[in-house]
Amino acid sequence: MRRVVRGLAYALLPAEVVLVVCLVAGVRIPAGLVVGVEVAVVALMAAEALLYVRLRRRGVGRREAVHELVPEPVARLVGHELRLMVSLVRWVARRPHGVGRAGVRTFGHARDQAAYMYGFAFVCVVETVGMSYLLASWPVVHAVFLVLDVYTVLFVLGLHAASVTRPHLVDGAALRVRQGAHVDVVIPLERISAVRHELLFSHPKEEGVLNLAVASQTSVTIELSGPVTAVRLLGQRCPVRVVRCHADDARAFVAAVRRARTLPSPAPDRLG
Fold it and tell me: Residues 44-50: contacts with CB within 8 Å, 24+ apart?
């Protein structure tokens, strides 16, 4: 049943997108076809909801139930978009993610990208105003592009907000290295064999190496005695033995990691 529903989703949802684009563009489509597609989409949503309720009744967790019904890349992309919007709220409220527990030190990594992210957002705003003026004579098209343009501005600001509100974290048990809302790697301190300040502007692709560049640069290199798993944006899992990342104060970050490695590991929970 789940395979049938997922197969229908792969077929119907793209068809729905094509149908909406055609209607916005003014293409005449037979009313019967429109009604048929919409009824099929509603039936698909009802089947998805029914399967979700059944999985929950069997004791399956919410996240696991969603992943049973929705392909992981799709679920992760949607989750990433939601995290960006939440990051905007955190940014305004000055409430960084994962911060506040005793013994946790934070190290920002968004300072060097701020200028070009603000510049990109400004360009998007100019493009929004320009398109709004050019499409004023076509109300429907104007409304569609206005929504898309405004969301693009929010998306760009969300990318920067996610970097600001998700700093690197160091405590007595683990190092948590992050990049925006799409990379979050927890490294147990006992697996860190070496950490050093190393400014690099070139990052060739290497197996087992995770490069988290900010403004095309990394300033900290972390070598591991054993691999940790890094999850990519679409869910691909990669074992890594070297992590290169950036910190606004790279030397203080390196010193904090080295200091944490020399302390005895505490019993409290790892970074959540």
Answer: 44/5, 44/8, 44/9, 44/12, 47/5, 47/8, 48/5, 48/9
Any domain includes 208: yes
Q: Give how many domains the chain has, as a whole number.
A: 2
Buried (b) or exposed (e) across 198-232, using 16+ Cβ within 10 A?
A: eeeeeeeeeeeebbbbbbebbbbbbebeeebebee
Tens digit of each residue's pLDDT (9 = 90 or more) over 4-31:
766 777 777 777 777 777 776 667 778 8
Residue that terminates a domain, selected from 70, 100, 117 = 70
* Domain residue limits at 211: 170-262
Q: What is the pLDDT of residues 110-169, one digit of tens each?
A: 999 999 999 999 999 999 999 988 888 888 888 888 888 999 999 999 999 999 999 999
Examine the fold and report which residue of 17, 45, 70 is the final residue of a domain before the chain moves on. Answer: 70
Q: How far apart are the first and last CA of the chain?
A: 36
Residue 108 lies in a domain: no
